[in-house]
Amino acid sequence: MSKFTAAVSGFPRDLLPSTCCSGRRRVFRFLPSTMASRNTFSGSTRKCILGIDIGTTYAGMSYCLMEPGRIPEILPVTRFPAQDHVGGDSKVPSVIYYDRAGRVKACGAEALQEGVVEQAIEHRWEKAEWFKLHLGPSTSLPTYPLSLPSLPTTKTALEVFSDFLDYLFHCAKQYIVDSYPSGSALWIELESSMQFVLSHPNGWEGVQQAKMRKAAIRAGLVPDTPHGHARIHFVTEGEASLHFCVMNGLATDPLRLGNGVVIVDAGGGTIDISSYRKIPGAEGDVFEETARPQSVFSGSIWVSSRAHTHLRAKLHGSRYAGDVDHIRDCFDKTTKLRFRRTDLWQYIKFGRPSDKDEALNISNGQLKLSGEIVGGFFRPSLEAILEALANLAPLSPVSSVLLVGGFGASDWLYSELKMRLKYLGLDVSRPDSHVNKAVADGAVSFLLHHVVLARVSQHTYGIECLTRFVANNPEHRGRKPITDAAGDLMLAKMFSPILYKNTRVSETHEYRQHYCKMKDDPTELNSVKIQIRCYRGQDPNPRWTDVDPEQYSVLCTVHADTAKIAQTLPYKFGANGAYYCLDIDVVLSFGLTELKAEITWDEDGIEKRGPAKLIY
To answer: Cross-referenced CDD domains, in alphabetical order (predicted)?
Structure first.
C-alpha cells in the first residue's frame, strides 16, 4: 500500500511555514511617466510589446516600439477596417460573422455595416458576440437571469476568441506597416520577438489563461514552442487600469500621501475593482494592494439586458413586438449613453414619424420612458459596485475612487457614485478622455515597467494525502481508518494546504510542504505523480476533501523521475514488515503571472526537481 503522509500530522495552522500566513498584499513599484517612461531603451535591437484588450463588447490594442537609445512611448492602434472616425477611436466592436461552414466573413466594425448585416441575413450567417463570457469560469456569471448569445454552431469559445485575436493581430500589423517608414521591413524585424500582453477580468485564473494562450497560438501570434509560450503574458484588467492611472499621473497625490485608492474599471461585461496604497515606511515609491481584487458581472450589457426585458414586456401583443431587438439596439446607441437624470423623460428614437401609439407612449417614431424606469436598468450595476466597495472599505483607508472603462463614461453612473460615496468621505473622479483605452495602455505598461512585485493568492492550494488516525480526535472518530505500508492506522481524504488564500506571494518566493511516499516495493517509487488541488470555499482552514467536495478541483498533475534515489532507499520495518519511504517536497511558486507546481527531492545531498507545471 502507498501513501502520501503529511510530515506534520493533522497540519495545525500554526505549524505551517510563516510565509503561508503573511497577510494579503500585492506590492507595486511606482514608476510615474516622468520617471519610467523617460528612460531610454538600452537594448541593442528594436523590440515591440503589443497589449490586447478583448472586452465583452469592444476591443482595443496599444503597443510600444522600443528602439535603442530612444524613450519608449505607449501608443494606441486607432485604425480598423470599416471603422468610422478613422484615427480617432481606439476601440472596435467585439463581433464576428461566420458562414454556415464556420468561415470568418466579417469582424469588428465591418460586421456592423448595413451591407454586411444584409448579407448575413440573406446567407444565414451566424453572429458571435459577447463570446468572451463563454470563455470565462462557468461559475462566474451572475445568479439573476441573463440570456447570453449562443456561440456559432461550429465554433467553441476558444476558437471564436482565437479568430478575433487573429483579426486584431492583422489590424495591428497593418497599422504599424502603414505608420512607419519601411513599415513592412520593420514588421518582419519585430514579429519573431514581439511580446504580447493579454488582459482578462480580475476573477479569471490559470484555466482561462491557458485557454487564451492556446487561442493565441492558434491565431498565429506565437509558435507552439516553449519560447513562443513565454512571449504571451497576462494581466488582470484591474491591474492594467492601475498602470494606466499611474502612467497618466492619476491619483498620484493621494497615493503619495499614503491614502488608499480604489480603481473601478467598468466595462461591458465585468466591473473590476482593485484597491492600493503606499506601503507605510517603505523606502521609495512602493505600493501595495490592500484587498483581493474583485470582479462583478454587472457591466453595461446588463443594463441593455434589463432594458430588453422591460421592452419585451411593454410591447408584448402590440404591433411593435417584433421590433423589440431593434428598439433595444437604438437604446444602446443613444438613450443609454445620454442618460443623466431620473426626473426627466427619456426617448428612444427607433422608427418613422408616422409610428404612433398613445397607449404605449410612442409618438413621432419615439418611445418615451420615465427616467425612473431607465434608472432601474442602471441601478443594479451601481448597487453591485457599492457593495464591492463596502467590502473593501474596512481593509484600507480609501480616500479616492477612480472610474475608468467604457461603462465609466456613463454620466449617470459617475454622478451617482460621486453623490453616494461623498457621504463616506470618498472623492470620485474619472479621466477627462480615453477611459475606454485604459486597459490596453495599462497592459503594455505592465510589461514595460514591471511594477508588480507580489500578488495575492485567490484560493487555497494543496494536495490530498493521508494523516495519522488519532482515536480521541473528534474529527477522526467518524472516519474509517486504513492501514499503510508501515502498519499504522491512517485516514484518507485529508487536504494538506501548501498556499493559503489571501497570502501575499512574491514572484521569487516558494511555498512548500514536506511529504513521504511509502511503498512495499521500492521499484514503485521510481516515479511520483501528485495532483495539485484547489479549494474555492470560504473555510479559512479546509481539512477534508469529502467535506464540501464541490469546492475542490484538481488543477494539474506534477510528476518526478525518482528512479535513481529509489534504488538507494534503505528499507524500514513496520507492523506489516519491510517498507520503503521516499521524502519529497511539493513546491508552489508564482512567476510573473501564473502559479507553478514542482516536486523536489534530495539525491546525493543535492536537491533535484521534476519539471515545473503550470497550474490550470
So the answer is: ASKHA_NBD_HSP70
